[in-house]
Amino acid sequence: MQAGLTLVTILSGAFIFVSDLIRCLPLRMKLGLITVSSYQGTKPTTAHIVQQLNTDVTGRHVLLVDDILDTGGTLRLVRSHLERARPKSIRTCVLLRKPSKVPPDVSADFVGFDIDDLFVVGYGLDFNDHYRNLPDIAVLREEVYRG
Fold it and tell me: pTM of the full predicted structure?
């Protein structure tokens, strides 16, 4: 029996990206969702799982989809969590990557764009749960978050 594909989306930031991505993939697939918190304001914090994965990935090929790769904490945490479920394979896909911040032990198999070390919002990315609805990705002005 052939192993199927499951896209595991890290919520909430990657939900718009993955909705566009899956419409471009002419494959049968399942969609898994996991919620992770890794920021407080504009500062990265220790990533932790807020809501567990909603589907079984045992024996399946997994494409782990996230919005942004910077410190690597979120991908490291979720990948470790998925490995315990014994999928057939795990590959990672991120919309944005900050090469200057990514640690050497974390990588993405597929990257949409590399960006400078700036705080960005829009297209699902947020600042304190605001700006996710912006149709484009924009740099958050410092006066917005410094108040």
Answer: 0.89
Residue 24 sits in a domain whose CATH number is 3.40.50.2020
- Burial label for 54, CB within 10 Å (0-12, 13-18, 19+), is exposed
In a domain, 147, yes or no: no
Torsional sign, CA 113, 114, 115, 119: positive
Strands (E), 98-136: 110-114, 120-121
pLDDT averaged over consecutive 10-residue blocks of the chain (147 residues)?
A: 83 93 92 85 74 91 95 92 95 96 94 95 92 94 70
Candidates 20, 56, 66, 70; catalytic one:
70
114 among known catalytic residues = no
The angle formed by the CA atoms of residues 13, 119 and 93, to the nearest 5 degrees, is 40
Residue 91: name the closest of 18, 6, 13 by CA.
6
